[in-house]
Amino acid sequence: MTNNINGVSGTSTAELLKQKDQVKSGGAEVFAEHLKSALNEVNELQENSESAVADLATGQVKDLHQAAMAIGKAETNMKLMLEIRNKALNAYKELGRTQL
After folding, report:
1. How many domains does one find in the chain?
2. How far apart are CA 59 and CA 36, in angstroms?
3. Residue 19 domain-assigned (yes or no)
4. How many Å apart are CA 10 and CA 85, to the nearest integer?
5. Looking at the DSSP assignment, which residues form a beta bridge with residue 8?
6. Please, are residues 48 and 70 in contact by the beta-carbon 8 Å criterion?
7. Helix, strand or coil, per DSSP, at residue 8
8. Is residue 6 part of a domain?
9. Are 37 and 81 in contact (CB under 8 A)?
10. Longest Cα separation, the chain
11. 15 CB-near residues (< 8 Å, 6+ apart)
12. Would you say residue 65 lies in a domain?
């Protein structure tokens, strides 16, 4: 059961357990697929935002609120993706500093 609240999806315990089994069998591939899907979603939101800005600039916008929401979603998702990237890079650097 997945709930969608303001674009953020929640995952049930049963789904997490299924994903845990998938991670054991092919964790890197599953992670790569999730990351690729998240990047595609951010890209789609950015394209929607650019379209909304173009509509605003040309005066073709029908609903100003929807345009502002599209721009806000794209901005928030881009900030989130940048934070995830920064955390991943920091983790990678930390692993590089780890002595075996």
Report:
1. 1
2. 34
3. no
4. 21
5. 5
6. yes
7. strand
8. no
9. no
10. 61
11. 1, 2
12. yes
Q: Which helix (H) or strand (E) holds 79?
A: helix 64-97
- Single pTM value for the model: 0.63
Q: What is the pLDDT along the chain (100 residues), one digit of tens a residue?
A: 444 555 555 667 777 777 766 656 666 788 888 889 999 999 999 999 999 999 888 988 888 888 899 999 999 999 999 999 999 999 999 999 987 7
Q: Which domain holds residue 63?
A: 27-97
In a domain, 88, yes or no: yes
Residues 66, 91 contacting (CB under 8 angstroms): no
Q: What distances in angstroms separate CA 27 from CA 19, 35, 73, 82, 91, one per listed residue?
A: 9, 12, 29, 22, 17
Tokens of 25: 């069998």
Contact 62, 80 (CB under 8 A): no
Structure tokens at 24: 């054991």
Question: With contact defined as beta carbons under 8 Å apart, do 10 and 35 qualify?
Answer: no
* Contact assessment for residue 10 and residue 3, using Cβ atoms and an 8 Å cutoff: yes
83 HSE (CA, 13 A, CB side): 6
